Amino acid sequence: MNQSTRESVSIPSVEDGCPDMLALIVRQGARQMLQQAVEAEVAAWIEDHAHLTDERGRRQVVRNGFAQPRTVVTGAGPLPVTMPRVHDRRPEDQRQRFTSAILPPYLRKAPNVAQLIPWLYLKGVSTGDFTEALQALVGPDCPGFSATTVTRLIEQWRGEHQQWNQRDLAGKHYAYIWADGIHFNIRLEEDRQCILVIMGATADGRKELIAVQDGYRESEQSWTSVLLDLKHRGLTIEPELAVADGALGFWAACRKVWPDTREQRCWVHKTANVLDKMPKHLQPQAKDKLHQIWMASTRKDAFEAFDLFVATYEAKYPKAAACLKKDRDELLTFYDFPAAHWAHIRTTNPIESTFATVRLRHKRTKGNGSRKACLAMVFKLCESAEKRWRRLRQYELIQDVIAKVTFIDGEKKQAA
Question: CA-to-CA distance for 45 and 216, rounded, in angstroms?
Answer without folding.
Answer: 58
